[in-house]
Design a protein that fits this description.
- The structure is a single chain.
- It is built from 9 helices and 10 strands.
- The radius of gyration is 20 Å and the shape is globular.
- The strands form 2 sheets. The chain has a 5-stranded mixed β-sheet, sandwiched between helices.
- The two termini are 32 Å apart.
- Helix content is 43%, strand content 19%.
- The protein folds into 2 domains: 130 residues, Nucleotidyltransferase, domain 5; 171 residues, Nucleotidyltransferase, domain 5, CATH 3.30.420.40.
- By secondary structure, it is of the alpha/beta class.
Length: 333
C-alpha cells in the first residue's frame, strides 16, 4: 500500500501544502501574502490572520492537483517550529484537527531539518554523509547529515543571519520588499567596487552583525559627501555586499569540507536562491572536486514539499506526534 503524506508549512508568511506518495512529490502549492509589502516586512498578526484564510483552500488545491482524496492520506506532516508563533499555531492546529478527523498519525517537523531534506524532493540527491549550508533570513548553519534524520550542526551564526544582512542592506538602499532578492537583481548588473570587512570568527561559526554595521556607516559617510551616492552606485554597492556575504559563507563551508573530508556539498534555505551564491558554489565545487547540490528555486524558499519529505522519513521510522504537540517559535534542533 502506498504511503501518502500531506505536508503543511506555515512558519512565516507563506501558507503551503504539498502531497507526497512513496517519496515522490505530487503537488506543491503556496499562497503568498502581499499585504506585508506595504509595511516593508512581515507583520506577525497580519501573517497569522492570512494563514487562517488560506490554509483550507491551499490544502484543497494540493489534494486536487495530486489527484488524492483526503481519505487516502496515510499521515500529515507539519512545521512545528521555529518561526512566528501565530503563524505556526495555525498550521499545527489545522493539522491536529485534520489528522484527528481522519484518524491518521502526524509528524512534527523542524523547519531547518526540512530545508536540508528538500534535496530529496527530486533527483539528483546527495549521498550520505554530506554537508549542507543552510542559509535564510533567520538562520545560517553548516550541518553534517549522516542519514535522513541524523544531523549535527557544525557551525551557526552567533548573531544575525546572512539573509538578514541582505535584507537590511536592501532596506538601507531603499529597495522594495522583499529587499534581499532585490539586492541580488542589482548585483547581477554591476561589479564589486567597494570593500567590506570580513568578520574574524573562529571555527565554523558565523557573524553578520558587524558587517551590517559597517555597511550602514559606509553608506552614511558616502551620502554626506554625495547625496546621490546610492542612486549613482546602486549596482556596485549591491555587488560588493553580495560578494562579501557569499565569500564569508563559502570560506566556512570550504573549511568544514576540509575538516570532515566530505565532498558531497549542498546548500538550502531561502538565501540558496541567491544567484551569486549558486554561481560561486558551483565554481568552488569544480575547484575542490566536490559534488554540489543546489535545489530548484521552489525548494529553496519556504515550501510544503520539504515538510512532506521530512514527514515521510519520520513516518518510516515511526516518529509520530501526539495530540498534545504544540507550536514552538524557538524549537531547538
Amino acid at each position: 500500500m502506498s504511503i501518502i503524506i500531506l505536508g503543511i508549512e506555515s512558519s512565516c508568511d507563506d501558507t503551503a501544502a504539498a502531497v507526497l506518495r512513496d517519496g515522490e512529490i505530487l503537488s506543491n502549492c503556496i499562497a503568498s501574502q502581499e499585504a506585508h509589502r506595504a509595511y516593508g516586512g512581515v507583520v506577525p498578526e497580519v501573517a497569522s490572520r492570512a494563514h487562517q484564510e488560506n490554509i483550507v483552500p491551499v490544502v484543497d488545491l494540493a489534494l486536487n492537483k495530486a489527484g488524492v482524496k483526503k481519505e487516502e492520506l496515510s499521515a500529515i506532516a507539519f512545521t512545528q517550529g521555529p518561526g512566528l508563533i501565530g503563524s505556526l499555531i495555525v498550521g499545527v492546529s489545522f493539522s491536529k484537527a485534520f489528522a484527528m478527523s481522519l484518524g491518521i498519525p502526524m509528524m512534527a517537523v523542524h523547519h531547518l531539518q526540512a530545508h536540508v531534506l528538500a534535496h530529496f524532493a527530486e533527483h539528483p540527491k546527495p549521498a550520505f554523509p554530506f554537508l549542507c549550508l543552510t542559509v535564510s533570513g533567520g538562520h545560517t548553519q553548516i550541518v553534517l547529515i549522516r542519514d535522513f534524520l541524523d544531523m549535527e550542526v557544525l557551525g551557526r551564526t552567533l548573531d544575525d543571519a546572512a539573509g538578514e544582512a541582505f535584507d537590511k542592506t536592501g532596506k538601507l538602499l531603499g529597495l522594495d520588499y522583499p529587499a534581499g532578492p532585490e539586492v541580488d537583481k542589482w548585483a547581477q548588473l554591476g561589479q564589486p567596487l567597494f570593500e567590506f570587512p570580513e568578520p574574524k570568527v573562529p571555527g565554523l561559526d558565523f557573524s553578520f552583525s558587524g558587517l551590517k554595521t559597517s555597511i550602514l556607516y559606509f553608506l552614511q559617510d558616502a551620502i554626506k559627501e554625495n547625496p546621490q551616492f546610492i542612486t549613482e552606485n546602486m549596482a556596485g554597492i549591491c555587488t560588493s555586499v553580495q560578494q562579501r556575504i557569499v565569500s564569508i559563507l563559502l570560506k566556512k563551508l570550504r573549511k568544514a569540507a576540509q575538516q570532515t573530508g566530505i565532498r558531497e556539498i549542498a546548500i538550502s534555505g531561502g538565501v540558496s536562491a541567491n544567484s551569486g551564491l549558486r554561481r560561486e558554489l558551483e565554481k568552488l565545487g569544480r575547484e575542490e572536486g566536490w559534488n554540489t547540490y543546489i535545489p530548484k528555486i521552489e525548494y529553496c524558499t519556504d515550501n510544503a514539499a520539504m515538510i512532506a519529505v521530512t514527514g515521510y522519513y519520520k513516518f518510516l521510522k515511526g516518529e509520530f506526534a501526539g495530540q498534545d504537540v504544540t507550536a514552538s517559535a524557538r524549537l531547538e534542533w
